[in-house]
Write a structure and sequence with these properties.
Layout (H helix, E strand, L loop, with lengths): L4 E6 L6 H13 L6 E6 L2 H10 L7 E4 L16 H6 L4 E4 L2 H6 L4 H13 L3 E6 L3 H5 L3 H12 L5 H4 L3 E4 L14 H18 L7 E5 L7 H4 L7 E4 L6 H14 L4
Parallel strand pairs: 1-2, 1-8, 2-3, 3-4, 4-5, 5-6, 6-7, 7-8
Helix pairs in contact: 1-2, 1-11, 7-9
The chain binds phosphoenolpyruvate.
């Protein structure tokens, strides 16, 4: 892995404004270890409150779970990249499998959103991952490489170097998921690193993360892989205590005192 180690969470569809504020105030008063890049992705409704609760000097980056690719206008129920940036987002999650499965997100809309995020000065966090049948057929690498190539298709090679990519196998995510083993993750992440280098003129993307049932028991092992630069966590980091424990594990795995 390269430093810093990225360690972040999406709160998904959880937390009221008051709950978001309490979480952020908790992690803001804790001493975060050196060597990590923490990030938190609230729901849209609590993003501005999280921003307001975060001290200016905090290293924690805030993100949005989604935003539309269009600039503004007739998009009922949507928010633009500029709007989430205005509410405090520095990064934006794009193409999470729940959005691909249930909200008609396609490779094409993911690419449009990655383009719009960069244009708005936001860091795209592009999520890719294969369904269980593809995994069992041994075709995960081809599947997610194709997702990544499509997602980066509207960015210049220089812009690709600012992108975060999260490998999140669909079968590993959520309460019915089985965490991928380091042996399952390593070849996929290695190929994604290669693809990112190829399309960025040799530089690679900003960081490659693994996500899917990460917890305190498996986090350190998942970070042993040379190409895995961090972890993208759901449930295990929905409490500030869980987030801080994972941050400490990540710092230790990176050998940061
Ligand atoms: C996710 O949904 O992206 C995720 C990583 O969730 P969990 O850690 O809860 O499996």
């Amino acid at each position: 892995m390269k430093l810093p180690v990225w360690i972040g969470t999406s709160w998904k569809m959880t937390k009221t404004i008051a709950e978001a504020r309490a979480y952020i105030e908790h992690i803001a008063t804790a001493e975060l270890p050196a060597g990590i890049q923490p990030f938190v992705i609230p729901a849209h409704t609590s993003l501005a409150a999280a921003r307001d609760a975060l001290p200016a000097e905090s290293p924690v980056l805030l993100g949005a779970q989604n935003a539309h690719w269009g600039p503004e206008g007739a998009g009922t129920g949507e928010v633009s990249m500029r709007m989430v940036g205005d509410a405090g987002a520095r990064l934006v999650e794009i193409g999470h499998s729940e959005r691909r499965q249930h909200h008609a997100e396609t490779d094409e809309t993911v690419a449009l959103k990655a383009r719009a995020a960069v244009d708005a000065g936001l860091m795209p966090l592009i999520c890719v991952g294969e369904p269980v049948d593809v995994h069992e057929a041994g075709e995960a690498i081809e599947f997610v490489s194709s997702q990544v190539r499509a997602a980066l298709g509207r960015l210049s090679s220089t812009e690709v170097s600012g992108v975060l990519i999260a490998y999140e196998p669909i079968w590993a995510i959520g309460e019915h998921g089985r965490p991928a083993t380091p042996t399952e993750v390593a070849p996929v992440v290695s190929e994604l690193a290669r693809v990112a280098r190829e399309v960025s003129g040799g530089v690679g993307c900003r960081a490659l993360l693994y996500g899917g049932s990460v917890d305190e028991a498996n986090a350190a092992d998942l970070l042993l892989d040379a190409n895995t630069d961090g972890l993208f966590v759901g449930r295990a980091a929905w409490t500030p205590e869980g987030f801080l424990r994972l941050a400490a594990i990540a710092a230790e795995a990176a050998g940061v005192p």
